[in-house]
Amino acid sequence: MTKESEKSNLPLSPGQQEAQKLISIEKRSAQILVLFFLASLWFQSWAVSLGIILGGGIALLNFRWLGRILSGYLFSGKKYSLFQLVGKFFFLLVVIFVVIRYVRVNPVALVAGISAVVFGIVIEAVRQSLGTHRKGAW
User: Fold this and answer.
1) Cβ distance 28 to 117 under 8 Å?
2) For residues 111 and 54, is the Cβ–Cβ distance under 8 A?
3) In 13-74, at which residue ranges do the beta strands (DSSP E only) sit?
4) Rounded CA gap, 121 and 87, in Å?
5) Is the Cβ–Cβ distance between 110 and 55 less than 8 Å?
6) d(CA 134, CA 23)
7) Which of 48, 86, 88, 91 lies at a CB distance of 3.0 to 4.6 Å from 109, suitable for a disulfide?
8) What residues contact 121, with CB distance under 8 A and at least 6 apart?
9) Predicted local distance difference test score (pLDDT) of residue 20
10) CA distances from 77 to 70, 72, 73, 81 (A)
């Protein structure tokens, strides 16, 4: 048995388990975002499709950024800075403003794209609470 395979048989630490859950949520959200994008093609409008993509991208960026800030605080022992959260909030606020004001996307589609992460969180929470979280399962 190699060291690599021995490592894979070890149980995951609590920090690694939480990281796996966050990765599952990100993957599920990306899958939902792709489905939303494919559905938006039915409208035959770039404003709708672009709104879905930009909304989902902003939401995934926010989710990953928040995860890094909090994991650094909880697991790495880094000092918590309120400035990081406030700065992230204002940065995303400016990005959303610029997208709505200058890119001229459909605002309903933008909200639908942002909601892909919410749906991803709900679906993964239900999957994990039912105990159907298996490797390789869709």
Assistant:
1) no
2) no
3) none
4) 24
5) yes
6) 14
7) 48
8) 25, 29
9) 85
10) 10, 7, 5, 12
pLDDT of the residue at 55: 95
Whole-number Å distance between alpha carbons of 98 and 108: 16
136 sits in which H/E element:
none
Distance CA 25, CA 32 (A): 10
Closest CA to 59 of 84, 36, 82: 36
Cβ atoms of 55 and 117 within 8 Å: the answer is: no
With contact defined as beta carbons under 8 Å apart, do 63 and 88 qualify? no
pTM, two decimals, is: 0.77
User: What are the φ and ψ backbone dihedral angles of 68, each rounded to 5 degrees?
Assistant: -70, -40
Do 54 and 102 meet the contact criterion of CB atoms below 8 Å apart?
Answer: no
Segment 84-107, tens digit of pLDDT: 888 889 999 999 999 999 998 999
Chain mean position to CA 133:
18
Q: Is 52 in contact with 109 (CB distance < 8 Å)? A: yes
In the chain, which residues have pLDDT < 50?
1, 5-6, 133
